[in-house]
């Protein structure tokens, strides 16, 4: 299976996928990353892709007159690689109607909280501020909401009294990277069906 991964920052989730595929071999893992895209240039995630010898692309909102044109450009950039599955690994933009029309149902996202709790761009900070005792991460299909699509898998992480946002986020990411590698491999190898809010992996 062909994966396109979208990043916005450090790309450690991308790196986890790269390492898992390199270790197992694309055949055994069931997928290979064919390209990495970002919404801005110069992020570490793109450098990781380049080090792995992968094609990369940047699709910046401010390069387009409207959000819809950006969404179209992003969809075109992704479609050029003919992905079976698109993975948002720390991609911090909300895609629009066209992207979802073309990739919905094969577009997964990882979120650093236990959805439906703490959706949005500050899930770690929000869980900490709320005083949650446990939080975690969620891998889900992307739908037309923000972090509202059908949940595929979740991992629980304890919150410690001494945690600040970055310490907690690092602990979440340890679980998140393993969960994403496991889920992407399963979806690629086994195939799946989405039935309402349920995801059935064959
Ligand atoms: C991940 O925790 C992701 O869930 C969140 O931002 C983080 C990205 O980390 N949206 P990285 O870029 O994969 O290191």
UniProtKB/TrEMBL annotation:
Gene3D superfamilies hit by this protein: Formyl transferase, N-terminal domain
GO biological process: 'de novo' IMP biosynthetic process
Domain of life from the UniProt record: Bacteria
Site (Raises pKa of active site His): 147
InterPro entries documented for this protein: Formyl_transf_N, Formyl_transf_N_sf, GART, GART_AS
Enzyme class: transferase
One GO location term (cellular component): cytosol
Record-listed (6R)-10-formyltetrahydrofolate binding positions: 67, 92-95, 109
Protein's recorded name: Phosphoribosylglycinamide formyltransferase
Organism: Streptomyces cadmiisoli
């Amino acid at each position: 299976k062909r994966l396109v991964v979208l990043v916005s920052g450090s790309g450690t989730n991308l790196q986890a996928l790269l390492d898992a595929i390199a270790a197992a071999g694309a055949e055994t893992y069931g997928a290979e990353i064919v390209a990495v895209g970002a919404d801005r240039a110069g992020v570490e995630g793109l450098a990781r892709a380049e080090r792995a010898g992968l094609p990369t692309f940047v699709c910046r909102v401010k390069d387009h007159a409207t959000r819809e044109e950006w969404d179209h450009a992003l969809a075109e950039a992704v479609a050029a690689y003919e992905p079976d599955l698109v993975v948002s690994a720390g991609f911090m933009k909300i895609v629009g109607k066209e992207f979802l029309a073309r990739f919905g149902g094969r577009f997964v996202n990882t979120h650093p909280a236990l959805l439906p709790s703490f959706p949005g761009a500050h899930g770690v900070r929000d869980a900490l501020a709320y005083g949650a005792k446990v939080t975690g991460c969620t891998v889900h299909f992307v739908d037309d909401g923000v972090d509202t699509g059908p949940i595929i898998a979740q991992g629980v992480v304890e919150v410690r009294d001494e945690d600040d946002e970055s310490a907690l986020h690092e602990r979440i990411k340890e679980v998140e990277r393993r969960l994403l590698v496991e889920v992407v491999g399963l979806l690629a190898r086994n195939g799946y069906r989405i039935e309402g809010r349920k995801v059935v992996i064959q």
